[in-house]
Amino acid sequence: MPPRTFSLDLSRSSYVCKSCLTNLRISNQPKWLARHGSSVAQKAQQPQYPTGQKRPKPKATTETISLEDLQKAFTQLKTEAREQEQAQAPPIKTDDDISPIARPTQPLSVRYYNEIQPGTYKRMPDKDGFTTSAKLDTKIEAAINELEQQMASTVEMLQQMEEGGMQDKADDLRKQFKKTLRDQYKGKTGPEAEEHRWLRILGFSGARHRAVANLNRFLARENVVKGGVPKPKDLLECWKSYSAARKSLSTAWENVPRGVWDFLWTTLSWEEGVDNPNRMSHIYVLAKDMSAAGVVLRDSQQLLAIEAMFIEGWQAEAIEAWKKAVTLGSKPETFKEYWELGVRMCCIYGDTERAQRAADMLLNSAHDMDPRIIIPIVRALAAKEPTREQAWTLFRDMRDLLGTSMTVEDYDIVIGSFLACNCVEFALQAFVDMMFAGAIDVRGKTRLPTAVGNHFFLGKWLKRLIGAGQLDEAYQVAVFLQTKGVVASPIQLNGLIGAWIRSGSAEDLDKAERLAWDMIHTRLEYVYLRHRAASMDQPTRFYAPYVPPTIGGDGSGFKCKARATAETISLLAENYCSRGLHDRLKELWEGSQRAEITTTAFFMNQLIRSHSHNMKADDAVALYRSMTKEQNIRPDGHTFLTLFSTLSVNRLIQRDEVLSARDVVSGRQFFSDMVEADWVFDSPELFGILPRTILFSMLKAHDYTGMLVAARAMKEIFAYTPPEPLLIELATGSTMLKAPTKRNLERLMSGTMTVEGLMKHHRAAVAPGQRLDPDNMTVDQRAAELHAVLEQLILLKAGLQDVDPNANLRPALEAAARDMGVYDIVIAPDPKKISKHRKLDKKALQEM
């Protein structure tokens, strides 16, 4: 019989057979065997039905059957068989009057093993050797003997049933018995079955305890039995099964084996290699249940339970439990964990004196301890005004203990701790110590040394804080150093404003807006003083726009001395435009004009976009004309992308014929301005979206001649080749094909067939000797084919697919080319004109 590890208190490990272990696990309960729906006892108790009469279908049951029930069923079956034999033949003298239990049992072949070390087993010569080696007490040895006798009786009972002519029923009973063992041990034998022990909670049956049955099914799963690193799904299902079964288990906690508690603890407390966000809350509940069940927690479990109690909000109770478990602090295996837990909890709770005593226990012990345990104490002491000097002293002590092993991350943690408590002076000194190895002392000084008191040094610190996401701390540093005579540069503050805006929270947006307007107000005052100095006889009065309250969150009334720049205006403009705050954008425009800040193309684009979004397309175009002609603002590619977006065909859902006719004129004028303007592509994204927007705008406005001219012009000045997906979109007339709908699928298939047909038509029109293999085309040959297909597609959309545009449409093309300012590029190509207006050559295109 395969060996099985036997352990009463899970502290010893030896071997005993599976059946013995099954009996010992439920020594306080009746000896049960699992029964699944049908059994010998059920069949014996069922009434006999006449031949041909349909028997009712038995209902599935989850009841259990004991050895005594099996013996009764065996006796009843044997009596029925004897009665049938006596009715057909003379009686035969037997000794059936002797009880199977009283009959001398047949010897069982039992092999005994002892575990020498994990994974190594030694077979014992006999039972006496096993008993001596395993050091079993009298009760356990008696239980093993009793179980062996019962097993022998069961074997003999099955043999007698076979001899008595009940071979089929004996086979059914034997199959039922084997199935029970197979279900329990998952078909494993030998040391493998012993390593992955079977977990099950007995004593709960019926519909009321269905949750316990679900928990047993989870415990019996193959991946649970084999162990390993659990998945997040396993952790979720473990807690789901256990939490549902808690109510039933609470009626009889004693029925839950210690192995189940250990498995649940190991699973729910897992944190390595898997995300377990509810780890502490689950451990807190599990620890309470184990305490209610009278299960003694191991040392490591006690520490984790105390920590879970503290995190779940029972801080005072957790600290009291930590004090009572002081014996854990004297054990070598839990010494470090115990005192470190005390330091962390006491610091959070505010008991810094006890935390320091716990830290002293660690640092003064013979163990190799990490001085970084002082950091929580430094943070707790820095939170209170009277103990901040003590916090600084502890930090210096920790730095001396660490020596050269102190890292930049350690400094960052300490600096962040001081900044979180608004102790900027201590944080500055810590940062100076990190940068200059403690050679400069800046505490208590009104003016900072030259090596520290400059905006370059301040910029390094602000950049580090902003990069770490400590935006409020960065602002505190800027405010503090301005009181020391060091003013942050506008570039540094613009970085802080941009980071606040990117965070997206309402509070951070408000902080960014107030700081930016504070900088604009400072710029207005500077301009006012400059004009006053220029005309001392009669100062010019400047009225600043509305300025929100200063950003000083501490009520100090801090006023930023850094002046706003064009980047400051651009950051606010983009924010207002994206949020649809058109009035604030107009106010910003007026403020920038009075502050004499040069308006950039980016700011102009935001103003145009804002007017367009507010259904004021005419005002947007007028603003563009005014800013480019009167203020000499040079537009860029994004400007024309924004202008084409103001056309009615790109703004309105329903087409308006009058507005579409105006769009033809406006679109051609925008294209002419785009060609004349001195700009170049600055990003691959713009290179992909601007030509696409131009072609679709003219397609929607039904300006097919302008579209044909634009395609030829962009080939020369943009070095643009239309990609095949764009051709398919133009063929369908829709830019919204990404949505996985049936309509889009039909459009996509139709457009693809159209483009492929035009490609085949183009290849067929080529002379037979000049035809090329589509799979072996060069880049230039492929580009020429795509351009030809684009022109054929435009003619197809215009209903002129059988017309030669160069012969029959030349007057219309010449007129469109003059309107679009590309006559010298498309109709009468001039290499100098093409070179002058080229926005991106082929070399730059390849680099992009």
Automatic annotation (TrEMBL):
Residue ranges of the region described as Disordered: 35-62, 79-103
Domain of life, source organism: Eukaryota
Signal peptide bounds: none
Ranges of Polar residues composition bias in the record: 39-51
InterPro entries: PPR-containing_protein, TPR-like_helical_dom_sf
Chain ranges passing through the membrane: none
PANTHER family listed in its UniProt record: MEMBRANE-ASSOCIATED SALT-INDUCIBLE PROTEIN-LIKE, PENTACOTRIPEPTIDE-REPEAT REGION OF PRORP DOMAIN-CONTAINING PROTEIN
Protein name, per record: Pentatricopeptide repeat-containing protein
Organism: Lasiosphaeria miniovina
